Amino acid sequence: MDLLKIRAFEDDDILLMKTWLNKEHVMKWYEDPDAWLSEIYGRFDKFSFINHFIALYDRNPIGFCQYYICADADEHWYGNIPITGSYSIDYLIGEENYLGKGFGKAIIALLVNKVFSLDKAQRIIVFPEPENIASCKSLLANGFIFDEKNKLYCKTK
Question: Which UniProt keywords apply (predicted)?
């Protein structure tokens, strides 16, 4: 996985992202492509608190990922997790040839390292669909703990 990197999302990635969001294996978990695209289009203003990235393997785009400070998002799935110092991540593999080969786990590891390099980051919380077994297993493999009370995955710094 040494050839796996993430880089900042660019305007030239929008068409590729549209393609990925409309693939069956992605739509299963990202049901509203327009909402995701709206965040990307607004990444320099309304959604500037979200840090968007493209995952590259050997310089070829294979997926998308992002992180954000939970306090900046208008979401209500955190339960009793302290909002201060909490970040969340999202990720997807768009290219089918990279599914089931450990790339999701590796993308999560890159995101975790990026978030935990930030001074204010104390924890990362994630709320995947419980039926998304691959995502849940990838989180656990990266040291996340399933918080039974809040029904989410959490990793502390």
Answer: Acyltransferase, Antibiotic resistance, Transferase
Torsion of CA 125, 74, 106, 122, to 10 degrees: -40
Total domains, the chain: 1
Which range marks the domain in which residue 133 is found? 4-156
CA–CA gap between residue 65 and residue 69 (Å, rounded)? 14
pLDDT means per 10 residues, the chain with 157 residues, are 92 96 94 92 95 96 97 88 95 96 96 96 96 95 96 96
Q: Specify the CATH number for the domain of residue 14.
A: 3.40.630.30
Transcribe 99-147 into DSSP letters: TTTTHHHHHHHHHHHHHHTSTT--EEEE---TT-HHHHHHHHHTT-EEE
pTM over 0.85: yes
How far apart (Å, rounded) are the C-alpha atoms in residues 97 and 10? 23
